[in-house]
Design goal:
Blueprint (H helix, E strand, L loop, with lengths): L1 E5 L6 H12 L2 E4 H12 L8 H8 L4 E4 L6 E4 L2 E2 L7 H10 L3 H17 L2 E5 L2 H5 L5 E6 L2 H14 L6 H17 L12 E4 L5 H9 L3
Parallel strand pairs: 1-6, 1-7, 2-6, 7-8
Antiparallel strand pairs: 3-4, 4-5
Helix pairs in contact: 1-9, 2-4, 4-8, 7-8
Amino acid sequence: MIVTLDGPSGVGKTSLAQQVAERLGIAYLDTGAMFRAVAWNLGEGAWEWEAARIRSVLGTLCFSLQGTGAKTVLLVNDVPLTSDIRTETVGMWASHMARLEAVRSALKEAQRALGRTHSLLAEGRDMGSVVFPEAQYKFFLDASAEVRAVRRWEQLKAMGREEDLALLTEQMRLRDNQDRTRAIAPLKPAPDAEIIDTGGLTLTEVFQEICARF
């Protein structure tokens, strides 16, 4: 079984994806974390490298999954990812990296490989439209940048990271524009995806609406 859950940053995808995967008893694939892991491993400015150099480094990274639901662990070269990849700075790096064909191609193949060996719920930005177009169930979540920035601020605060809300909101808008207008795999719903505006809904209400589709 492949279920896709797409949408912009801060829309609540991660919590919902973990909960739905838990309900279904399948693995949870955080593809945004894969892009963040690439950005973290390659470092600031790597998006300016020549494609051959990027492909060479990407060839040394191997992704794998352990567990199911909220307890699913994403590993790179057998090492679990840490909260170091969750800063907004790394998020911006990841957005820059996501514009590169070499990165998207490599991670698309890594994601499809995981889908061939696991039943999973894939969370990201183009899971239903590009990576798993034949997925049995597809969902696209959305909300305003202001609503998503507050959610992100609260999430980071819970992790012990203090961020400026106004700056987060501006970064959210910049990432939205970059992700929605990029030439390669822009952020948009798959034609057959169920679109849910989460702005006026609690996570529990969105969770119930998703689960009602199965």
